[in-house]
């Protein structure tokens, strides 16, 4: 990967190289997607090969490099880099699994429980009233809320659409009909206390959650042990989020919520290509 520093007036630009920590299999997979897409849209010529385009896009996603810097290092325009990035995001997002198919696959593999959790992807603070809905009082930051499903090993399975940061995890889960999908697949989901109240059918529960203490009703020793057991089983879910946020473009998003949903689903595909537990 090459990047270019901004030159002073009357001097030559300085180009430096940086390591791109992704596997060759991921680069080859992405290059094949680009090649197939170019044939489909009959794009017969581009300034770089599909392999080089794949490396440039992966550099943007992994290192969150400025488009102008990468453009200068590869002798293309910043608008071209932006177009390539959005193109690859759409190609990868189209291959992200749907909720019902994910749960059916887990059930066919003999699984009984998945892990459900939410994460806030921080965004730039913008001016205007429309940005107030992105402020999360829980995290004291602006961002977009996503729900994710992982298996018991911490492998990411599915991402919901982006919701404003002020939205609650329970409301987002209900919007995606997660309990209905779990019940149809005959699976359960382990959640943290933030999902208290999500269960909509006490006679046929699918949500496994700990107990919350109250001032007048402290937890018993048995309930504390049950909470510890749920927390221990849910720990692997955080590993999946850690793998996802190795893509530094998520450090602070600078794109519309609709593009953010496609981005998260594209990174889900790339993360599963890189890491399988």
Descriptors for this entry?
alpha+beta; seven-stranded mixed sheet; two-stranded antiparallel sheet; 9 helices
Descriptive overview:
By secondary structure, this protein is α+β, with helices and mostly antiparallel strands. About 45% of the residues lie in helices and about 15% in strands. It contains 9 helices and 9 strands. It has helices at about 25-40, 50-65, 65-75, 80-95, 100-110, 170-175, 180-185, 220-245, 255-275; strands at about 1-5, 15, 115-120, 135, 140-150, 155-160, 165, 190, 205-210. The strands form 2 sheets. Strands 3, 4, 5, 6, 7, 8 and 9 form a 7-stranded mixed beta sheet that branches. It has a two-stranded antiparallel sheet with strand order 1-2. Helix 2 crosses helix 4, helix 4 crosses helix 9 and helix 5 (about 100-110) runs parallel beside helix 7. The two termini are about 30 Å apart. About 30% of the residues are buried.
Query: In total, how many beta strands?
Result: 9
Q: Supply the helix-strand structural class.
A: alpha+beta
Calculate the mean pLDDT score and round it.
87
* SSE pattern, N- to C-terminal: EEHHHHHEEEEEHHEEHH
How many H/I helical runs? Answer: 9
Helix content: 40-55%
Radius of gyration: 22 Å
Major beta-sheet overview? 7 strands, mixed
- Which percent band covers the strand fraction? 5-15%
Shape: elongated
Q: For the terminal residues, how far apart are their CA atoms?
A: 28 Å
Low-pLDDT windows of residues: none
